[in-house]
Amino acid sequence: MFEARALSDQVEAVRETHAPDAQVFDCDRDFETLPPAQAEDLGLVVDALEPASYPATWLPEDAPQLLAHYASSDLTIGMPGDGSVVWTRQTEPPVVLVKPRVQGSPESFVDFLLAEAVVQLGLDVPEHFIGFFEETYRDLDDAVPLDPNATYQVAAALYDGWVGLQTRELFADWDDDHPELADAWQDAGTQLEDRVAGLPRAVARGDTDFADATELACAAIKHAIELPAPFAALDTEAYRDHGPEYAIRWAEKTFESIEE
To answer: Which domain of life is it from (predicted)?
Structure first.
């Protein structure tokens, strides 16, 4: 299931700087969440497994079952929306897992995803949005008048945007030391620009729902792309500094304006 991945020199340099103890593995099959038996197989390639758990009281009663499972004491690695490269600190040492779906992607882009993962490990940010919102996830659920799955998507996007506010400062400094990674970061951002600029029109026409729009806008934050309203309010130092409290207030104000 897991095979050690050889890293390019530039990714190895980033790993040594930000998460020198992290191990990187290719997975032999795609997943959103690793099946329990396969998650346990990680014990064969790491020193220890340390499942994370969160209080059930942090979740609303109608939370998606997969989120409730993640919050339990079961070893749960990978969740919907995590993308092609997943990292976890539920192992000792921490690991980065690369899904087969990256095959066919430009090598430079895959290197960026790997570098991003080890940078996030080095920042010591929560592994999942439930560790970011904690008990205030119930407040976000109250502020977002969408179904539980869409609320999950908005929460995951808001967390991704908050992390992006921190990682992009590091990415922007790669021009000198890691120019290939810097180019990949900029290229990925360029590909998002037109889609992000058109979000208000797409939502107004019904071509894109609010959860999808939030996901795209928050993904653009790490690329330092200018965001349209109401998402521009998330691209601020205030959000970086105040995190969950700010995100919940943003959701409240945004949906209040939509309903007016």
So the answer is: Archaea
